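Here is a typical protein record:
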Amino acid sequence: MSTYNLPELTYDYDALQPHISEEQLRIHHDVHHQGYVDKANNTLKELEEARESGEEVNLKSKLKFLSFAVAGHKLHSLFWENLSPDSKEKPEGELAEKIKEDFGSLERFKKEFIQAASSVEGSGWAALVYEPEADKLLLDQIEKHNLVYYPEVKFLLVVDVWEHAYYLDYANNRGDFLEAVWNLIDWEIVAQRL
């Protein structure tokens, strides 16, 4: 049976300092993200075993749990790719032009993105997505890992605003974390996804 796997980081655990500490990154990647991978794989195994044995399962519950775990895994995988110790200060080229076209300016985009991330109710994510039919960059808030999103969008940039993403380094100061993460965004990856 195919299973999900924890992706390796493309940078060292201490590479994102001072914005994200080594301890914060290790716990977030090795414990939290690994937990979503394990939960997804275990749920797939339970479903397969139930199908083989003919056992009845609470399918609504299992599928909701599986969706939560897989979405947690996928969003975290995107998040790690969105970060770089060698981040450029701002996007360039087509991405920069598209941000200016759809948000008015990079400054306005940053303000709206941080506002969207700061106002996620409870735990969740902020995302910049591209919606091809309207040819627009849109912001999205994802509560928990429940993907309430525009169908067929491309995820370009995601930022984790669950407390486990920042609490060791920033306590309950989500805004300080968001300002710090802005210094780590790999704009080249965001541009490639566009």
